[in-house]
Write a structure and sequence with these properties.
With 205 residues, the protein is mainly alpha-helical. The protein has helices at residues 3-17, 21-43, 46-62, 75-112, 116-133, 136-146, 151-158, 162-183, 189-204. Residues 28-94 form the RNA polymerase sigma-70 region domain.
Length: 205
Amino acid sequence: MTQTKANDESTYISRFKNGEPEAFNFFFNCYWQELYIVAYRHMRDEDTAKDLVQEVYIQIWEKRDLINDNYISLRPYFFRTLKNRILNYYASEKVRKEVVEQMLLRMESIVRAGDSTTVYRHLESIVEESISNLRGLMKIVYQMRADNYSISQIAVQLGIAEQTVKNYLSESRAILKKELTKRFADHDNLLIFMIASSFIHDFLM
């Protein structure tokens, strides 16, 4: 960093802490490209790298009151925050993969035991029963969607807003998932959640 740039930056730090948008833009222009390059080297994915850098700026902006008044540059602060974001990302990905692997192992054991057909048969009967318990427009909207009507087609035919249609479908999904969770409480929760989510998705999406 040149001496001129360092001097310019030091004048913006207090303004940044005070929440001035111009100061935010200054630091965005200073470091976004460098941060993105570092993030991309680790992620090898443009969207993920951009998301991480965006999260860095949001985090620092939201916690700007914690910035030390003695800082003459925020460069180390930005890159340290990015490093932590990358480490957190890898940690969460590792956990997610472990959960998925456990779920797959559990599914394999069920298939070997010949239980998968029974599980899906129960799911189907519960979904059908839950559908019959839906009331009013929610039931009509659900049935039309199951018959491959689009969101806009349902809205036009029923004379309601598209957002209302989406709300009914979302509520239907929540009702069905709640019923599945209650009825299959004696099974592997993760497995049932994954199967139920996929099963209901076929009905509602």
